[in-house]
Amino acid sequence: MSLDAIYAPVRDDFERVNAQIHDQLNSRVPLVEHIGHYIVDSGGKRLRPLLVLLSAGALGNGGQRQATLAAVIEFLHTATLLHDDVVDTSELRRGRETANARWGNAPSVLVGDFLYARAFQMMVRLENMRVMDLLSEATGVIAEGEVLQLTNVRNPDLSETDYRNVIHSKTAMLFQAASHSAAVLAQADGATETALRDYGQHLGMAFQIVDDVLDYEGSTETMGKNVGDDLAEGKTTLPLIHAMAKGTPEDAATVRQAIRSGGPDQLGPVLAAVHNSGAIEYCRGRAAEEAEKARQCLETLPGSPHRQALYHLVDLAVQRSD
């Protein structure tokens, strides 16, 4: 199923989301609007608000309130992108300059703070304490995940379990919060709420594992970011963990040294070590496992175009090249 076909069941609701996003970017400070529009309009797929709308639609609960929730989720995500690019000193995202590369670190951080604040203002208007509790908890977990990843920069001894803890917090948590909060706002029964919560979690895990694979398999043109960025930043992701565990002693030593030193200088030998160890296949296998768990969560939902789109959204997450 194409991306357009996945969006089709919620096309009208997505127009409401886009309208709210642009309306809520208004500020009496022009730079806030400039940076906000720059990153929001940078061509992302908006998978997280899509997840809200499809989850709500699968429960027969679309409309303005779910559109507001979807906009909240997108603002939270956009704020994390602004902050992440500063922390990672990234210069390229979605095929163009990052906000920090264009305007500097301080404006990027402060506009990220504005987007967090605006997200919580919108959240209050939903007048649902469970949604507020869920999203405020998720925001804290995401921040902890980013700090956890930062504390493990240039650490070649990170285990696969530690890696999964990091990506659950920093990435999967917002996917989980998107589908879970949609179910809560729709007043779904307990079993359905749990199923959609777990669906979002497994989808997010699969998405991030594939994202980490693409750093060693993709290209700058298709990904919209520089290949090898994770290595340059000293991040120990699953392809590297597997290469160190299953590669030759020489390849493992190469990867360990590259993680410790950071920088792109050793990208060629590290790419060879990753591919020679079977790390790409291994990681895609782990992503496929998470994808299958996500699909199983959908079995409790009634048949509908929205449920079908949720099913194919999993395929999109694991089969993408950018």
UniProtKB/TrEMBL annotation:
<dbReference type="InterPro" id="IPR008949">
    <property type="entry name" value="Isoprenoid_synthase_dom_sf"/>
</dbReference>
<comment type="similarity">
    <text>Belongs to the FPP/GGPP synthase family.</text>
</comment>
<comment type="function">
    <text>Supplies octaprenyl diphosphate, the precursor for the side chain of the isoprenoid quinones ubiquinone and menaquinone.</text>
</comment>
<protein>
    <recommendedName>
        <fullName>Octaprenyl diphosphate synthase</fullName>
        <ecNumber>2.5.1.90</ecNumber>
    </recommendedName>
</protein>
<dbReference type="InterPro" id="IPR033749">
    <property type="entry name" value="Polyprenyl_synt_CS"/>
</dbReference>
<dbReference type="GO" id="GO:0046872">
    <property type="term" value="F:metal ion binding"/>
</dbReference>
<keyword id="KW-0479">Metal-binding</keyword>
<dbReference type="InterPro" id="IPR000092">
    <property type="entry name" value="Polyprenyl_synt"/>
</dbReference>
<dbReference type="GO" id="GO:0008299">
    <property type="term" value="P:isoprenoid biosynthetic process"/>
</dbReference>
<dbReference type="GO" id="GO:0106350">
    <property type="term" value="F:all-trans-octaprenyl-diphosphate synthase activity"/>
</dbReference>
<keyword id="KW-0808">Transferase</keyword>
<keyword id="KW-0460">Magnesium</keyword>
<dbReference type="Pfam" id="PF00348">
    <property type="entry name" value="polyprenyl_synt"/>
</dbReference>
